[in-house]
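Re-running hAT-like transposase RNase-H fold domain-containing protein to confirm reproducibility after the cluster update. Everything else is unchanged from the original entry.
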Amino acid sequence: KAIDSVTLNDRDLKKYLLTENQWAELEKIKDFLFLFKEVTTIMSGFTYPTLSATIPLYNILIDHVENVIGDVNVIGDENEEVIEDVDNDESEANSSNNNENEWSQIIKNAAKICRLKLLEYYNKTNYSYLISTILDLKLKLQYYKDNEWEDELINDIQQKLVFY
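Result of re-run:
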């Protein structure tokens, strides 16, 4: 309402008045970014430790992004294929006459790039993150079991905990 009010009341800004379709597109972007805002707020907590929440929050974001992308047929380090795929998708989106489909494709392309960046940082985590999750009274080892991590990996984490 505030943006519409300002653009309607200033003749120099009337050309920037957003249409209903543009508002709908912005709403889709807002919906996609909402979870990132929430995770950022949680991780920005300076009055409590957040290391134990790192792995679960990364998993939440990666799942969110993969849901937006749909069928994820690329695995982690195949960056070139994903970037080529994103470039091809952008070409298809630009030639599309369907505005809604075009915006969905733009968000999907952003999600693909976002997934790459999340996986890049996720892969930099180490056993300290995994162990801190186990030591967190709210998460414990049960977090890994509830999220269907492989038994071999869970046992490896347990062994590292004992070793440290």
